[in-house]
Every structure is written in C-alpha cells, then in structure tokens.
C-alpha cells in the first residue's frame, strides 16, 4: 500500500480511540503471542538461513525474550495504564494532581539485522501496550526473518493498526519514511545512521529513541574467578558470531592473570564449538559479504592466538582471540561487531578507569572481580548504558531493568515497564475545587511578596 495512504489509515484508526481500550491491547498482545508460537518453526528456519543460528540460540536470544515481554505486559498492563494520583504542594490547597497515561499515536520502529526478530518485536510490544499504532521497518539484510515477521504481523493485526513497511528497502527507504510525520520514532542500529534519524526527526520535532552501539569493554581484574569469567566471556562474545551490540568488544585483563585467562578461553572455545567451529551447528555466520570483508581486514592487525580462519563462500570467520593490539590500532577505533576479541592488559585500575572514562560512552561494560571496592569504583567512575558484574550480556534479557544507551551509544531505554513508559506521554492534570478560592494569588501584589516567600519555604 502507498505509505501516505497507510499512514492516513493508521491515524484514522488511532483517532477512533480503539487502541486506548486496555482490554483491546491485552487481547492483541495475546494474539501476537499465539501468532509467534504458531510460526515458531518458521522463525527457527529463517534465522538459520539468515545468520546460521541454532534453534536453541534463537529461542534464548530472540523468541524467548519477546514472549517474556508479552507475558509481562499482559500481566501488568492494567496497573501500568491506570491514572496515577500524586501528591500536591500545600500552596495548591484545594486541588488534586493526576498523571494520565496517553499513547503518542503512530510509532515508526526501524529494526536491525543482527537480532531481527527480537529487536523488531520487543519495541513493538511496548508500543502496543502503550496504545499506539505501529509501522515496522525491518532490515533487508535478514530477508528470511523479515518475511516471517511480515507473515506474523499480517495474521495478527489489521494494517491500520500494525503494518510492516519497506522490508526490502535500505537507507534510501528509511530516508523516505522519515519524510512523513510520525508521533514517535524508535531506531536500533549504528550511531552514524542514528544521527541521520535524529536530524530528520527534528523537522517535525518527533521524539526519538536511539538504540545504538559502541565498543563495550570487558574488564577482568586479577582477583576474578578466571574459570567462570572465561566461559561467560566466550559465550557473550561469540554469541551470534559476535554480531551483538552489547557483546564484549575488547578485553582489558590484568597483566598478572592474562596468560592463565587466555589458556582457559582457548579451552572454552574448543569446548563450545569443537576443534573445527566451521562445522559446529552452534556457531553463526556473518550476515553479508560487506560485513565479512570489513571484519577480514582486522585479522592482520595483531597476533592471532586462537582462530583467525575464514571461508569467503560461507561468510565464516572462526572465533578469534587477538593479542598485540593497542588503542591506536584501527580495530580499536570502531565497533567490531564480529567474532574477533582483542586482548589488552592493564596493571593499574585507576589508570584504566581514566582511559575508559575519556572514550565515547559504550552501550555496555562488563567487570569480573570479587572485590566490592573495585566494583563500586568502576561503576561509579565510568558512564555506560548498562552491563554486568561477573557475567556478560544477560542484563539485556531481564524485563525488570531498562535497557538503553547513553551519549554515543544511544538515548532512551526500554524492556518491561520501561517500554510502556517510553511509548507513553505522561499528561499531567491538576484539578481545582470550586468550593473556595484563595484571593492571595491575584493582583494587586503590593505587600504580598514577603508573605509569599515565607509560605513557600
């Protein structure tokens, strides 16, 4: 359908007030869950074709997370959407204060290719729960998953409520979409495209959430449980072949434990993916040739201590550990977004904190330590989106804590109630009694200032 006509239909549907009905929203969320479960096998097949994801990894990082988001929204929506009565200052004696939870209207959700199912539907769940209509623009690079998404959306929603648009289009399609006036824009992708989104949105002063990325550091202090740290780092880094916006991008390990940790990591790569990860059913592939060629240029940058193999036809790069790099290396100047883990060392935590503090704010940070003092120092000194202590990535899977970036890694946060709040305008209302009126506030004001200051102290 013509975009202009579709947008008109969605605006008319939103204006009808249908989506403001709480039970209607709950029913459609239940329908979405049924639609996902009905098409679960197709989702597995699509993500296997796009990224070589196993069914386990697909459910763990995509389907399961969306189902949990839906379940929470269904359980909590009536509570979240209630008019909230709040306190009123004494100066407003005779009034009551309320916050009304109001949907924005039409949400444009632009999703990426790396977790194409989860990062399309998790924001959509929040937008629907809040009472909005949605246009979803999935990535053309994860074509098989985009096709399944479109199938599910068409089965569950009428297009005037939720529609998939421009699924075969790239940046030009996104640019075209941004010529239209939406009420909210949610974008997941790179900082470079995020800046374009924000600039375009400024034309209509459209509120924007940007879920971007960056170089997320992983710090391993000398007191860490190295055995557990190794497994959790290898799992988090090589999940989805490293194509995760919150993957540990580079490792900062205390020089006293570097050799021991590397030994464990080599063992864990072999335990997880076998001696030949190329034939492992549990190791992914790079999404396309352009990303593959970009990643391949990093391989000569340092000393390969594990991996470094690749296959052009299969878009395969083996799980790779790289030594001998510094912050001046090109691999350390942009997000890697692939299965290559540079390993750097430090010997002074204060100096490391200063170094990381002066870098662009990352989407995540991971710290392995058994010291509460070190934990407090790092968390208090470095600004980043979110992260874990003694693990990696798992914070993203909790609907009880907001997920989002800060600075160059993004703005706005979602998941669970935070998703509902993100797509909700808080309309503040103060209701005044007509029983009496305080004349003190009306002119003339001569001689009243001293009394006013005393009253407001």
The radius of gyration over CA amounts to 25 Å
Largest β-sheet summary? 7 strands, mixed
Estimate what percentage of residues fall within beta strands: 15-25%
Q: Give the uncertain stretches in residue-range form.
A: none
At the first level of CATH, the class of the largest domain is Alpha Beta
**Full CATH superfamily name of the largest domain:** Aldehyde Dehydrogenase, Chain A, domain 1
For the terminal residues, how far apart are their CA atoms? 60 Å
**Which percent bin holds the helix content?**
25-40%
Tell me the strand order in the biggest sheet. 10-13-14-9-8-15-16
Q: Care to count the β-strands?
A: 20
Mean pLDDT: 96
The CATH architecture designation of the largest domain is 3-Layer(aba) Sandwich
Shape: globular
Write the layout of secondary structure elements.
Blueprint lengths: L2 H13 L6 H17 L1 H12 L3 H26 L3 E3 L8 E9 L2 E5 L7 H12 L3 E5 L5 H14 L5 E3 L6 H7 L6 E5 L2 H11 L6 E4 L5 E4 L5 H13 L11 E5 L3 H16 L15 H8 L6 E4 L3 E2 L4 E2 L2 E4 L16 E7 L2 H9 L4 E7 L3 H10 L2 E6 L13 E2 L5 E2 L1 E2 L2 H6 L1 E9 L16 H8 L1
Describe this structure in words.
The chain is built from 15 helices and 20 strands. β6 (184-188), α8 and β7 (208-211) form a beta-alpha-beta unit. α3 (40-51) runs antiparallel to α6 (143-156). The radius of gyration is 25 Å and the shape is globular. It has helices at 3-15, 22-38, 40-51, 55-80, 118-129, 143-156, 171-177, 191-201, 226-238, 258-273, 289-296, 349-357, 372-381, 417-422, 449-456; strands spanning 84-86, 95-103, 106-110, 133-137, 162-164, 184-188, 208-211, 217-220, 250-254, 303-306, 310-311, 316-317, 320-323, 340-346, 362-368, 384-389, 403-404, 410-411, 413-414, 424-432. The chain is of the alpha/beta class and 457 residues long. The strands form 5 sheets. It has a 7-stranded mixed beta sheet with strand order 10-13-14-9-8-15-16. It folds into 2 domains: 3-212 and 410-429, Aldehyde Dehydrogenase, Chain A, domain 1 (3-Layer(aba) Sandwich), CATH 3.40.605.10; 217-404, Aldehyde Dehydrogenase, Chain A, domain 2 (3-Layer(aba) Sandwich).
């Amino acid at each position: 359908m013509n975009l202009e006509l579709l947008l008109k239909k969605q605006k008319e549907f939103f204006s009808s007030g249908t989506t403001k009905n709480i039970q209607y929203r709950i029913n459609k969320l239940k329908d979405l869950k049924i639609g996902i479960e009905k098409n679960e096998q197709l989702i597995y097949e699509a993500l296997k074709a796009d990224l070589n994801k196993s069914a386990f990894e697909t459910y763990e990082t995509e389907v399961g997370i969306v189902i949990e988001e839906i379940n929470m929204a269904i359980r909590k929506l009536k509570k979240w959407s209630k008019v909230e009565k709040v306190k009123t200052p004494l100066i407003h004696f005779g009034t009551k204060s309320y916050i009304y939870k109001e949907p924005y209207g039409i949400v444009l959700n632009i999703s990426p290719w790396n977790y194409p199912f989860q990062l399309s539907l998790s924001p959509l769940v929040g937008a629907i729960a809040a009472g909005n209509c949605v246009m979803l623009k999935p990535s053309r690079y994860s074509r098989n998953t985009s096709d399944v998404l479109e199938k599910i959306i068409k089965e569950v929603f009428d297009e005037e409520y939720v529609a998939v648009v421009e699924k075969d289009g790239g940046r030009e399609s996104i640019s075209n979409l941004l010529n239209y006036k939406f009420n909210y824009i949610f974008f997941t992708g790179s900082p470079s495209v995020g800046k374009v989104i924000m600039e375009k949105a400024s034309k209509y002063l459209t509120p924007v959430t940007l879920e971007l990325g960056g170089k997320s550091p992983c710090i391993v202090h000398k007191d860490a449980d190295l055995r557990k740290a190794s497994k959790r780092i290898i799992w988090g880094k090589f999940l989805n072949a490293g194509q995760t916006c919150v993957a540990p991008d580079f490792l900062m390990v205390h020089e006293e434990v570097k050799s021991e940790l590397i030994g464990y990591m080599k063992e864990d790569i072999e335990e997880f993916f076998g001696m030949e990860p190329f034939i492992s059913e549990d190791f992914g592939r790079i999404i396309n040739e352009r990303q593959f060629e970009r990643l391949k240029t990093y391989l000569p940058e340092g000393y390969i201590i594990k991996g470094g193999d690749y296959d052009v036809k299969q878009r395969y790069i083996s799980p790779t550990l790289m030594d001998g790099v510094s912050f001046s290396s090109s691999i350390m100047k942009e997000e890697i977004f692939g299965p290559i883990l540079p390993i750097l060392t430090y010997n002074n935590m204060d100096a490391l904190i200063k170094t990381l503090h002066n870098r662009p704010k990352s989407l995540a940070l991971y710290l392995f330590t058994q010291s509460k003092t070190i934990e407090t120092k790092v968390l208090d000194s470095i600004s980043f989106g979110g992260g874990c202590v003694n693990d990696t990535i798992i914070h993203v899977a909790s609907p009880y804590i907001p997920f989002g970036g800060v600075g160059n890694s993004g703005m706005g946060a979602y998941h669970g109630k935070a998703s509902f709040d993100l797509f909700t305008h808080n309309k503040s209302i103060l209701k005044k009694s007509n029983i009496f009126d305080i004349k003190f506030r009306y002119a003339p004001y001569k001689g009243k200032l001293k009394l006013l200051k005393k009253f407001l102290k």
